[in-house]
Design a protein that fits this description.
It contains 5 helices and no strands. The protein has helices at residues 40-43, 52-77, 81-102, 117-134, 145-168.
């Protein structure tokens, strides 16, 4: 055996003497937290902002998908190329006008997939805005501000108590 590991000799032990490392051993965590616990502003929740260009691209893509579906249907029916182009252009203009008229807020609520991060972020912002309006929470509300005001009042009260006995003497 090398490095004084394991048995000095496997004879009589009923084993082969092969030494394996303990894969279940957990190393102690000596490292500090990966974040600064004193900087509370950095720990505050920040809403992920969606990329407007990606959202616009996805809307345009949906329009083109519907146009291509119409083109496939017309090809199966045996329409001429000019007729297909005319109907596809009409549908494209109609869908783009509908998209422009209704804006970004339009469309039924649909289940979003996990990979649609920009759509999810946009939906979350809209949901938070609806909730904030329903609860009549101001836009400049800071989370935990109530506790800050309360501690400020307590501090002022303690300072007043400390300054009053000096004035009486």
């Amino acid at each position: 055996m090398s490095d004084n590991v394991g048995l000095s000799t496997p004879r009589g032990s009923g084993t082969s003497g092969y030494v394996q490392r303990n894969l279940a051993h957990l190393k102690p965590r000596d490292r500090p937290a990966p974040y600064n616990t004193k900087d509370f502003d950095a720990m505050k929740h920040r809403q992920r902002q969606p990329d407007k260009d990606i959202l616009e691209h996805d809307r345009k893509r949906e329009v083109e998908i519907k146009v291509l579906e119409l083109r496939d249907k017309l090809e199966d029916e045996g329409c001429t190329e000019e007729e297909m182009d005319k109907q596809c252009d009409e549908l494209r203009k109609k869908l783009q006008a509908k998209m422009a008229q209704s804006g970004a807020d339009a469309g039924p609520r649909k289940q979003l997939k996990a990979h649609q991060v920009h759509e999810l972020a946009d939906a979350k912002i809209k949901e938070s805005e609806r909730l904030r309006n329903a609860l009549k929470i101001s836009k400049n509300y800071e989370e935990g501000s109530h506790w800050k005001r309360q501690t400020e009042r307590l501090r002022k009260a303690v300072e007043r108590e400390a300054s009053d006995p000096k004035d009486r003497a």
